[in-house]
Every structure is written in C-alpha cells, then in structure tokens.
Amino acid sequence: MNMKIAFVGKGGSGKTTLSSLFIRHLAHRGVPVTAVDADINQHLGPALGLSDEEAAAVPPLGGRLPLIKEYLRGDNPRILSAETMIKTTPPGAGSRLLRLDEDNPVFAACARTVEPVAGGRPVRLLATGPFTEEDLGVACYHSKTGAVELCLNHLVDGREEYVVVDMTAGSDSFASGMFTRFDLTFLVVEPTHKGVSVYRQYREYARDFGVALRVVGNKVLGAEDEEFLRAHVGDDLLVTLGQSDWVRALERGVRRPFPELEEGNRAALSVLHREADAAYEGRDWERYTQQMVHFHLKNAASWGNERTGADLAAQVDPGFVLREERAAQAVG
C-alpha cells in the first residue's frame, strides 16, 4: 500500500524509538520507506544508526525551502512566484507533484540514504533541520516543519511505499494542518496518568478533523500496565510494547541484527504494519484536498496575505483534486 504514517506523543514517550523500529521493520521486509524527521530534537537519524556527525550532515529541508517552492510551483498559473508560496499552498493544475519512486531536485538536494537493517532495503531520510543560532528568539519550529507540510501537500505516493514521519513532541503536532496529511497516526502513550491525559487531548484534536488515530502503549511492564491503558484508552489501544534489551543496546551504540529484537516487540510491529495497510481503504482524496484548502485559507487570512503581499486564496484551484493518477499528469 502507499501510506503516510505519523508517530506522535509526549516528550519521553518513546515516539522516536518506535518510529525507528517501525521503519526498520518495513526495511527488513523490503518495503520502500521515506523517513522524515520533523521533531525539533532531530533524533531520528541516530535512532536509525547514523552517527551524530552523519545525522547533522543531512541537508535540512528548511534550508532548501526556495528550491522546494520553485520546483513544486511548476507552471501553475495561480502561483505568481515561489516567494508567494507558504507551507499550506495546495497544488493545482500545472504544479509539480512528488513521487517516491522518482528522481527529482528536492530529493537530490535534501535526501540521504541510510541502511538501518543489515541486508534490508535502504531507507531515504529527510530532516527538517534543527534550530540554528539565527532562529533563536525570532522563529518558531513551524517555520522548519513548513517544508515538510509543503512536500506532503504535493506528494502522490505509489503502491507499496511508505512515508513515516517522526513528528514533534507534544500538542505542537496539531499546531498546523500537517496532522491531517496522514493515512494513520500512531500515538505513543505510556501507562501513566500524564500519558493518558495527552491521549485525551490528541483524541479531541483528531476527532474534529476525522484523523485516524491508534494508540501504541509503550514501556508496558506487565498486565497491570496494559489493564490501566485499556481502562483509559479503550478500543483505541492497538498494541503494547515492553522494555527492550535490543533497544537499550542500540542506545549504547551496539547494533544487533534486527531479527534479534524481542519476539513480542517484533509481533507488535507486525500489528502496526497490518493496521497501516488496512487504513489505505479509508483514503479519501477529496476530503484530503478539502482539508488542504481549509488550512491554506485559514493561514492566508491570519498571516499569509500580509506576509507575502498577495491574495493567497487565489492560489486555490477549485477544480483540482489530488489523486494518485495525478502523478502521470504532473509537469516534468
């Protein structure tokens, strides 16, 4: 299936660890994966086996925003210049669309290949980039994740391909329209009152926009922890994972073969995979496009028109619906 999957959760819940394990699970099975680090702390690269120096060398999407905008704009007559594009600008007739199985200037400039599983399929890694000294005090992290949102708006993913995004921790995941860009969102929750309160907050955000949300219980030590989660989360609880000696070794810099991951945790990752595949049947391209337009008009009115000096509502192509077959019509 062609799936866009997000991992969200409060800081310290294990969100990045679980997203990296899911990416490894897919790579081990030969599934094409594009991994995106959209967390302010930028830990996904090291979690996939890169050294800190290698992870820091991944070109930041936020630093290539002019290139990304110019490429995606294509020949769309509704977008007068790349400078008038904002993070929510939707595609229309003449826009260039991104496919995961193609070469394009965006991937050439920003993506790097990692091999998180020995003998598995290599993974394409993209990263928003960390805060720099120049950003401090003058920018919010949404200025970084805007490049990811713009790319997701123009993405038409093909069969049997996954995009897995490690989102920023906390409720900031819902501070822009990007949380509606996914086929399924996995919310990582610890068996604590604080973890459950975060779940309730996320559930309300997700419900308002029809976001498919499933809970992954993490750091579950036994039946008592699982019963606690089940009592507070109910049927939203998909699966639980326990402590992992395999993960602890990885965090100490010891890389063990992926099949040595504990059997119970490997089984849990298979459940995530099956749930993600099943979510494909719920994909609604018209609603997806409508949500894109909704957030674009909202951002245009609140700050975009003033920032760009243009009427950004005019960028909306009312006859355009993003669909898989649109990729064949994209500007070359």
TrEMBL record:
<dbReference type="GO" id="GO:0051782">
    <property type="term" value="P:negative regulation of cell division"/>
</dbReference>
<feature type="domain" description="CobQ/CobB/MinD/ParA nucleotide binding">
    <location>
        <begin position="9"/>
        <end position="87"/>
    </location>
</feature>
<dbReference type="GO" id="GO:0005829">
    <property type="term" value="C:cytosol"/>
</dbReference>
<dbReference type="Pfam" id="PF01656">
    <property type="entry name" value="CbiA"/>
</dbReference>
<dbReference type="GO" id="GO:0016887">
    <property type="term" value="F:ATP hydrolysis activity"/>
</dbReference>
<protein>
    <submittedName>
        <fullName>CO dehydrogenase maturation factor</fullName>
    </submittedName>
</protein>
<dbReference type="GO" id="GO:0005524">
    <property type="term" value="F:ATP binding"/>
</dbReference>
<dbReference type="InterPro" id="IPR027417">
    <property type="entry name" value="P-loop_NTPase"/>
</dbReference>
<dbReference type="GO" id="GO:0009898">
    <property type="term" value="C:cytoplasmic side of plasma membrane"/>
</dbReference>
<dbReference type="InterPro" id="IPR002586">
    <property type="entry name" value="CobQ/CobB/MinD/ParA_Nub-bd_dom"/>
</dbReference>
<dbReference type="InterPro" id="IPR050625">
    <property type="entry name" value="ParA/MinD_ATPase"/>
</dbReference>
